[in-house]
Amino acid sequence: MDDSVPVGGPGGGRGRRLTSSAAKVVAAVVLAVVAAGAGTAYAVGRGHHRHKAQGARGAPNTVQVATAASGVAVSELSLSGTVSSAQSITVVPGVAGQVASVAVAVGQAVQAGQVLMRVANPVLEAQLTEAQAAVATAQAKVAAAAAGPSPQAVAVAQAEVAKAQVALQAAEQAPGGGSQAGSSSGGSSQAAAAVGEAQAALALAQAQAAQAEAPPAASTLAPLQAAVTQASDAEAVVDAQVAQEAVTAPFAGTVASLSAVVGEQVTPTSTLLSLDGAGISVQAPVAEQDLGLVRSGETASISQPDGSASVPASVSEVAPAANPSSLTFSVTLTPDASATWLAPGEAVTASVVTSRTPGAVLVPSSAVVSINGHPQVFVVHAGHTVGLVDVTPGISDGTTTAVTGLGAGSEVVTLGQTYLAPGDRVRVTERVSPPATVAGSSIGGLLTAPVASPTTGAKGGRTAGASGTAAGAGASSGTSTGAGGGRGGGKKG
User: Fold this and answer.
1) Are residues 205 and 176 in the same domain?
2) Fewest CB atoms within 10 Å of the CB: 49, 124, 161, 475?
3) Global pTM?
4) What are phi and psi for residue 25, nearest 5 degrees?
5) Range of the domain at 176
């Protein structure tokens, strides 16, 4: 009779055979380790007495399985950010003066162009009055010139002509004033001079009358009209300055803060209030090593830190230069219009999609177990026996994990691996399917994939716990490619 027994090899397989005395020593070591709670019974003995008792003809183990699916693995970069207004501005007065009135309050919604407050400047107001008077005077001169001669001026001129005519007639009828014969030479000279003066006076009166009756010439109106233009330009400058006494909203939004009070003296550099626009965005800093993962237009999501609310978003802008103090780059995320719960100043978390891998093999995270520090899955073969397959965990959301080393369509054990060994027969009680997409978040550049860790059960067997986590050795800072080659889930104890 062969009294040798099999010893579990690496990965739970059968190895060389030992004599019965050697087997007793091994069994004693196994029991001692189990009693100490070291959790390595599976790696050393793998439940030898149970397996020998069951054999190939024992009752099959009851398990739950899932079919590995072909889906999409989405890598995400986790960020922390702050909600800010998409439009935010500090309002200052256009002119110096005294705050005369304040028409708004903090939190009040305003429309574009709405008067928020008024600043009084008496000097500007006096200058405007003077400019308006100068314009009125210049316009009156143009109007008077353009109207032509007045009836009164024409009548006066015509009266002067008539008077000159009468004087001329009198001079001509005076002795010696005409060509009367017998007049002395001396008398004729004086009379002739009188007639000449009367004629000259008549000519002057007639010229003045003609001038009074003539319409205004273009050369007369041009300088008057130029004076009007100059006065109007001066008035417009002062009027624009006075108009700035009314402080208006540049866009529709909400009054975020108010610092000005009635009676306060202000200058064009004084802050009166701040105004937030209707839209909002999220500003999140990104380290330089992660900057290459973020692209404008990429899909994202914004959530409250406690996860109570989330809204889809997109990357709208990536700052081209780093913040000189933090050495990080600001990424702007624009949420959907439905994000009514977001308020400026609120702290939020965000996830930005950095890559998508179609055709990834997805399994429930509970299917991945760590045996001797190696992530593996139990695969159900034809004939209802199981075998172990080495896998490399990738992107995971804690429920579903993307793996390599396994084909889509394989049936993997998700529950009941506690006392399984390669070659064991199983009975499937339930089949579950993973979703078609898995999204994993890279926090600080390290992507983690949950891997079930073997622990020591109460009866010396191995239980697959879900508390272990294998961080991918291939995942470096700033990457979100998955936990490639993950290790560390199988630490003893």
Assistant:
1) yes
2) 49
3) 0.47
4) -65, -45
5) 149-212
